[in-house]
Amino acid sequence: MASIVVRAPKRVQPRHVILGALGLMMIVVWFTRDHMLLNASSPLRQRYAPVGWLVFLHGFPGAIALLLGIFQFSARLRQRHLQWHRLMGRIYVGSVFIAAPVAVIVAVKLPIPTLMLASVIQATGWIVTTGTALYCVRTGQIQQHREWMIRSYPFAMVFVVVRVILAIPAVARTGALGLETVVWSTIAVACFLPSFLIEWQKLAANRRAIRARAAARA
To answer: pTM (2 decimals)?
Structure first.
């Protein structure tokens, strides 16, 4: 008689929830706002008129990085399709190194001087974390590479998260002050939250190891 194999149900991990929420936010931002950039007569396109084609030189690579970044966190993709993972990683890095510097140029040309420094900090953080992740994988430090990619992607998501928050009517009514507050707060979270999550995972892993050793001695 053939044996019946019962597989335990797969657990939904926190990163799946986070990445799913980020993907949903990307869809919301596109359908509620960013698709208007393709319409030359839309108010959003007119707002970016001073930067001309630079908005697309920043936007398209940024959108590619946002999309590919989600797949880079898939353990299944890394294990089963390592070459695809590496290819998408290279495209992600190239997109970051285009989109981030152009974002600074766009911020300089747009008439919102109070947010220029915020753009510089976000772009610098995005480049530094991505460059460090690239260095780690080139030198064979795979775990550190993954950790720096976790630090890199939130800088990409600042663009989306800010626009989702600003779509809340109560926030939108606060005007320029609300815009600056949301932008700076989101950048601050992107800077510090990933490191907190990485270290918390290490603490949890250590705690499980201690419990396993204690159970083995019992």
So the answer is: 0.78
Question: Beta strands of the chain (E only): which ranges?
Answer: none
Exposure string over 99-110, b if 16+ CB within 10 A, otherwise e: bbbbbbebbeeb
C-alpha span between 102 and 62 (Å, rounded): 10
CA dist 92 and 126 (Å) reads 11
DSSP string, 3-62: PPPPPPPPP--HHHHHHHHHHHHHHHHHHHTGGGGG-TTSHHHHHTGGGTTHHHHHHHHH
Give the three-class secondary structure for 2: coil
**Span 176-199, pLDDT tens digits:** 888 889 999 999 999 998 888 888
Distance between CA atoms of 120 and 16, rounded to whole angstroms? 30
Cα distance between residue 128 and residue 88, in whole Å: 19
d(CA 120, CA 184) in angstroms, rounded, equals 12
User: Where do the structural domains in the chain lie, given as residue ranges?
Assistant: 15-217
| DSSP per residue, 112-180 | -GGGHHHHHHHHHHHHHHHHHHHHHHHTT-HHHHHHHHHHHHHHHHHHHHHHHHHTSHHHHTTHHHHHH
DSSP state of 115: G
